[in-house]
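Researcher: We plan to redesign the surface later, but first we want a full-length starting point. Tokens attached.
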């Protein structure tokens, strides 16, 4: 067994990995400032993006659920890898050769995901090679008849599984994979005589994740004597979870992210037909109904844009109709608009392309119908509208559908349309819709609230954290003292107003705070959960804002601030206790300022309870969004922290001088000399 990965290799892999590219395989990221990107958190459900990535720093942090880490941590969390497996995955991604040191190092118990993924990759290559063999003539004819040539099969990795019992298994055993690994990966099944191939005599499609890793396979039978199901998929395994994968997403993700549109079809050949016809946003579920986990996957790729579109296609048979209604039941989980497209004569995209060409496939999705309208018409069509009983039942079935339309401005129009379809009085239909709005929508809302309270959702324990600051004692001294703040004298625009525009009052006396400052509009605070130390737990005061922004600048722009200024800043008075701990950790990390280990050294110097706060300070977007002005802003805000100390010292000296009273007293003359020196220090500090 290989030994421990050399530490220098781990650091080199981390240094070479572009975290934004890695995270971008799973989440659509948008620019959020200088060296800052954000998107929907992949670790918890949320409506507004709170997941931030700092590519230059090499770290991510979610301000909603508190998840944070580096490239290795991200892969471990997303793909359930061990640390060693995440290093190996990233090393393979950047084509970096790892060196293993000898030792008593052993892997964690359980299946080795890297080995299972590698086995799937080897199997995919084997299946592709078999498609060119003599036995695969039936498979090639099947594909050719449906308009898929060799280039198309290569693009989608289509292969052929031979009819024998152990062709693939024997090939992979020859590559060093054990029968146990083949069974664990779902490539083989366990029988009385040992492991045998799961896929035999079938066309095979590889099912990949967004990064292109082969997780499993879908296979279609070809021969009449095959007594198995028409389609056979990889079973649930340590690497394959059918409710969380979409076939074709590895090829469609960039088009979906760019165009804010996804097309959900029902089969592997439908995905191929759509892509080859120019509809490159097509994906399909893999042996399961479209559900909430699939929605979460698409939302991470598209983002929460109300102008985005998700278009479903369903077969016209009863099963397809039920699938459409199941999709509608989950529709509210999307911010995007949802539609359904049904081809003329009930053809699926693959058949449509085969019989009518690429243009017909593209036109199919221009004739889309809102999903709720499709569900409405489907609900009404189930009843006999020639009878009173049928019309009443249809109204009872259809009213909740209108009540659940996300855009309230559309409901009156569809209420009138339903009245027309039923031949009923408009007032009667309006009453039924209003009743449905009150009951089912509240039930649905309560259901979602229950979902959010489940313990496995990491965001729950934090959702009321901002209320707790209402219960913390305010220190009068930190509230009352005036603060002089960074100047905008160097020109250029900043995110905040000129601090000297109105004299001594500046942006740290503003009424709002961009990193927290939640105030209950009713003046009532919810019960505080267990205290989580982060930006949102800091006191909401101008004094704290200055200390927070200065420490943020020191963490993120330490080299721009300069070692000399930082040496002074880490001795400055900080009134907020939690920020005082961060200041001390910064002081401990000063000897390695500018080194790759700078941020980790600061983190290690602080107690674990404050790691979340340090991560948030290091990840939060800087208030200054102009790159040319960022260094100047960072120095200014640190200077403001130091200047505040000098102002406080001056106040103390003046008070002492006043108490002495006699200006001829030697002590008074000494204080005057100190005041002159103090003013000189302030001018010098500002001049820097």
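Model: Full-length starting sequence:
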């Amino acid at each position: 067994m290989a030994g421990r990965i050399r530490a220098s290799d781990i650091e080199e892999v981390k240094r070479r990995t572009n975290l934004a590219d890695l995270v971008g395989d799973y989440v659509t990221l948008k620019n959020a400032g200088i060296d800052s990107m954000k998107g929907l958190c992949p670790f918890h459900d949320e409506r507004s993006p709170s997941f931030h990535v700092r590519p230059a720093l090499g770290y991510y942090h979610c301000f909603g659920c508190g998840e944070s880490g580096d490239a290795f941590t991200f892969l471990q969390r997303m793909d359930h890898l061990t640390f060693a497996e995440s290093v190996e995955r990233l090393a393979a991604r950047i084509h970096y050769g790892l060196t293993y040191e000898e030792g008593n190092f052993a892997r964690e118990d359980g299946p080795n995901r890297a080995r299972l993924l590698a086995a799937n990759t080897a199997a995919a290559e084997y299946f592709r090679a078999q498609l060119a063999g003599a036995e695969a003539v039936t498979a090639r004819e099947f594909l050719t008849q449906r308009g898929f040539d060799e280039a198309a099969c290569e693009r989608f990795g289509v292969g052929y599984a031979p009819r024998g019992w152990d062709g693939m298994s024997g090939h992979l055993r020859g590559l060093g994979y054990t029968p146990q690994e083949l069974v664990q990966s779902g490539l083989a099944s366990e029988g009385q005589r040992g492991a045998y191939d799961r896929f035999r005599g079938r066309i095979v499609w590889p099912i990949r994740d967004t990064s292109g890793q082969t997780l499993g396979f879908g296979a279609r039978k070809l021969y009449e004597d095959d007594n198995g199901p028409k389609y056979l998929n990889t079973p649930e395994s340590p690497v394959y979870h059918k409710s969380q994968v979409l076939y074709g997403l590895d090829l469609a993700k960039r088009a979906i992210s760019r165009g804010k549109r996804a097309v959900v079809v029902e089969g592997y050949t439908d995905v191929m037909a759509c892509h080859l016809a120019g509809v490159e946003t097509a994906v399909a579920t893999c042996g399961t109904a479209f559900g909430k986990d699939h929605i979460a996957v698409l939302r991470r790729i598209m983002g929460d844009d109300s102008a985005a579109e998700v278009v479903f296609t369903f077969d016209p048979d009863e099963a397809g109709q039920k699938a459409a209604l199941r999709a509608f039941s989950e529709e509210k989980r999307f911010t995007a608009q949802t539609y359904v497209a049904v081809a003329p004569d009930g053809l699926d995209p693959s058949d449509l392309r085969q019989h009518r060409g690429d243009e017909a496939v593209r036109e199919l999705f221009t004739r889309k119908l809102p999903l709720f309208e499709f569900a409405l018409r489907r609900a009404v069509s189930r009843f006999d509208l020639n009878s009173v009983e049928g019309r009443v039942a249809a109204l009872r079935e259809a009213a909740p559908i209108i009540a659940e339309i996300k855009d309230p401005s559309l409901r009156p129009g569809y209420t009138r349309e339903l009245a027309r379809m039923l031949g009923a009085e408009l007032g009667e239909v309006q009453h039924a819709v209003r009743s449905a709005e009150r009951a089912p929508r509240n039930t649905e809302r309560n259901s979602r609230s229950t979902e959010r309270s489940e313990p496995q959702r990491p965001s729950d324990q934090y959702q009321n954290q901002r209320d707790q600051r209402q219960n913390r004692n305010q220190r009068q001294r930190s509230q009352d003292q005036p603060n002089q703040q960074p100047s905008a004298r160097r020109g250029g625009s900043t995110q905040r107003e000129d601090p000297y525009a109105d004299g001594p009052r500046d942006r740290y006396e503003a009424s709002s705070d961009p990193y927290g400052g939640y105030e209950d509009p009713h003046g009532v605070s919810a019960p505080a959960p267990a205290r989580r130390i982060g930006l949102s737990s800091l006191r909401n005061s101008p004094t704290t804002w200055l200390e927070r922004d200065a420490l943020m600048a020191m963490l993120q722009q330490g080299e721009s601030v300069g070692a000399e200024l930082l040496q002074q800043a880490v001795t400055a008075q900080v009134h907020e206790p939690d920020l005082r701990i961060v200041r001390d950790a910064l002081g401990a990390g000063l000897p390695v300022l500018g080194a790759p280990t700078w941020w980790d050294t600061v983190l290690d110097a602080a107690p674990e309870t404050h790691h979340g706060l340090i991560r948030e300070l290091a990840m939060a977007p800087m208030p200054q969004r102009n790159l040319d002005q960022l260094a100047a802003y960072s120095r200014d805000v640190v200077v403001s922290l130091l200047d505040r100390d000098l102002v406080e010292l001056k106040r103390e000296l003046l008070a002492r001088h006043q108490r002495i009273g006699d200006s001829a007293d030697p002590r008074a003359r000494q204080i005057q000399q100190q005041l002159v020196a103090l003013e000189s220090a302030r001018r010098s500090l500002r001049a820097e």
